[in-house]
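Lab notebook, design round three. We kept the backbone fixed and only want residue identities now. Task for the bench partner: fill in a sequence for the structure below.
Input structure tokens:
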């Protein structure tokens, strides 16, 4: 009986010690720093086990798996992006993964001309695919309460960095971005738009044209003022960037009369007023440049002949043509130089 008692006691102590080790001994990223782990959508427990072991997250897979099943994690896999800390215990890691307390990721988007250009930028850090995002856009166009259409939806995307969960759905993401859009258009911005007699989409549309004319912030308010002068005087905008958008040829260096014949609502040579929607995703600086435009009398502008990206402005057609000839001569010289160099 004594021998049996001692044997049972040793056995119980051994089990207790092993149980303690399973639960409380470090088993995650031993001697390693924190790392992110992404649990894929529709992953089962076997996939999680494979990922943890093959990617070097867990040292003893048997103990982790044993405790995970005791804690029913094998039946409660929650996809997402998690951060595992070095020397974590099994129970700490399982509680984190089972809780669904995912670590957020950042999404950002800039320099997009078309809705289709947003997909690769927005989904780069997400579980969501480009196809799912594009399908979400179609859903949002049909179901939003903001009045967004296929032509103007791009105005909802305010370039910034947003923190979301890795496994966010397209519908949830677009709803979130719509809320951010509402927050962006605060009372001050809305009041300035009202003072201009324009709605938010129209402000974004004009801002997108200003941005295409010059991405430099110091000249944006001047360009915005010029286009506002034209709108107030009932003069067609005659904005080259809108013509390039209509033609879907953004490489055009020189706009010819043949280009101005394209029949498109984005042809601001043919149709007065603003086009149906933005021709890109305007930066915040471009939107604010329109809302805080510079007041002057300019109604004409032409790229400077030094190819600096800035413009010469004019209040009458005669001065504008002088500036235009300067630019055309400089452009012809540059093109001839390029041809001669290619023939050498």
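Proposed sequence:
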């Amino acid at each position: 009986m004594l021998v049996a008692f001692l044997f049972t006691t040793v056995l119980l102590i051994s089990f207790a010690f092993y149980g303690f080790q399973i639960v409380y001994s470090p088993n995650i990223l031993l001697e390693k720093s924190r790392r992110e782990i992404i649990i894929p959508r529709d992953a089962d427990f076997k996939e999680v086990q494979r990922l943890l072991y093959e990617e070097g997250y867990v040292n003893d897979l048997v103990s982790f798996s044993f405790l995970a099943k005791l804690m029913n994690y094998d039946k409660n896999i929650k996809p997402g992006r998690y951060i595992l800390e070095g020397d974590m215990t099994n129970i700490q890691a399982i509680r984190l993964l089972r809780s669904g307390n995912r670590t957020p990721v950042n999404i950002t988007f800039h320099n997009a001309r078309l809705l289709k250009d947003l997909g690769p930028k927005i989904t780069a850090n997400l579980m969501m695919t480009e196809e799912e995002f594009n399908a979400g856009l179609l859903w949002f166009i049909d179901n939003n309460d903001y009045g967004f259409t296929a032509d103007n939806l791009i105005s909802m995307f305010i370039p910034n960095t947003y923190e979301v969960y890795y496994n966010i759905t397209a519908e949830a993401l677009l709803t979130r971005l719509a809320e951010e859009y509402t927050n962006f258009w605060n009372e001050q911005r809305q009041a300035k738009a009202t003072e201009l007699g324009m709605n938010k989409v129209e402000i974004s549309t004009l801002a997108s044209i200003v941005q295409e004319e010059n991405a430099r912030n110091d000249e944006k308010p001047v360009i915005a003022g010029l286009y506002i002068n034209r709108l107030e005087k009932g003069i067609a905008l005659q904005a080259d960037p809108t013509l390039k958008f209509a033609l879907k040829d953004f490489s055009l260096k020189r706009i010819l009369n043949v280009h101005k014949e394209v029949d498109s609502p984005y042809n601001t040579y043919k149709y007065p007023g603003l086009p149906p929607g933005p021709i890109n995703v305007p930066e915040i600086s471009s939107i604010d440049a329109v809302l805080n435009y510079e007041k002057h009398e300019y109604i004409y502008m032409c790229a400077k002949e030094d190819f600096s990206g800035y413009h010469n402005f004019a209040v009458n057609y005669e001065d504008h043509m002088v500036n235009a000839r300067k630019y055309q001569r400089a452009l012809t010289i540059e093109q001839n130089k390029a041809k001669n160099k290619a023939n050498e």
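Keep this in mind before ordering anything: Residues 317-343 form the longest helix (27 residues).
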